[in-house]
Amino acid sequence: MSNKSKLTRRDFVGTAAAATAFTIIPRRVLGQSAPSNLVNIAVVGSGGHGALVVTQMLKAGGINVVALCDVDAEFASHIETMEYGDRHITGLYRQFPNVPKYKDFRVMLGQEQNNIDAVVITTPEHTHVSASAMAMKMGKHVYCSKLLGHNVYEIRLATQLAEQHGVITQMGIGNHTTEIFHRAVEIIQAGDIGEVRDVYVWCDNEWDPYQGPEAWPPRAVKEYHPDRADKQLREKLPIPAHLDWDLWLGPAKHHPYPGFHRGWYHPSGWRSWWDFGNGRIGDIGSHAVDLVFWALDLKYPLTIEGEGPGRPALERVPPWQKATWTFPARGNKPPVTVKWCHGNTRFDELKHLDLPHEWPVGIHFVGSEGRLTMQIERGPAGPMELYPKAKFANYTPPPRTLPRSPGEYQQWIQAILNNDPTRAEMPFSYSGPLSETLALGNVAYRVGKKLEWDPVLLKATNAPEADKFIQGSYRLGWELDKPKIPTEVPSDKTG
Predict the structure, then answer these.
(1) 45/116 same-domain check
(2) Cβ–Cβ < 8 Å for 148, 258
């Protein structure tokens, strides 16, 4: 859909609503008890990031918190100083003492389904689709933190369920809604740097669970010992009374509670472990590669390569990684190669360029007529620069053609209130292919070979050994449906 048609659609919806004098949102859109101007939400994951997200939603307006769920009652009640600035976020259990609270989201959704319109999911990645699939099958709108899911199969399932049930969805990648992202997309799509065939994305952040869940700023990567923690991980130590460890594990295989190190898994270290997260690619990669997907109209890759230290660990993500994705031509757009690296490593191809290498997270588009570089500083997007500097000294940017977003949370809420999915810029139809692509970077590293990807059959056609990482496995009682996959349909790799 063109930008013009998006604007026309939005204008049409607003005009039609006014003409028909609908002042109350139908109960098929909102819950039975919802006021016309509020969305009744339930929250899965009420501490930490969940508290941050919902607090920001409350500031945006338009929501009513009616049910809360968390496996750790203490964490859902505490006050946390967030890593960005001096913001103090109060857990939702403390903010809403009189709202019904649950440990198991399956119980909450079952008992509260007539009271809720939408679900906010901010748990670790391995439970994202377990919660979102159940919610969407009930006809509930869903906001889900990144990545959309833990593996390619369940990400595709979530994408299909969103379309099947007609719910309004959004994955939490807030940079997408910023003015600087919109301007970068407009510059690139206007052709001001020419045809883009190569993109480089870097993140200095390394990952070392032996020094805490994460390390920032970057430091020298120490010797990598894939199996160093095996003995400790087998130790059986007391589980805190306030934590339901079995529910925290959810669909993942059983792990003993690692009480010797607070944060090893819960509440913040889970991204470091293959059974629960997708490491730095799934974290910062979702913010940075999002701009690449949007600006270049990407969907599914043709090939994926992965690189990292030593032999891949069975349980832990590595401290540094590289990934390379190739994408086919799209209409009049040429094929493109996207490269990622994180940890104490950078691209040899960029060493000779006059770039701001002090930027800890950056994106560099290489066009036939120029180059564009942007900083991503762990959250908000930073400066944007065009090269060669002499050529762009008196540069006039193109007109603004993209509709501007009111904000990550406002757009999702407004999309629900207006029954207009086009208002949500990061629906699962967009964030699903992005999430699949990032997850495949990890698959290529773990398999140890270049993958030839069939996005229709969800197969690495040259590497059947990749199936176990593409599909995942689930504990009894936590099984998910398989995504709908054709059996004998030729692959359409143009996406």
Answers:
(1) yes
(2) no
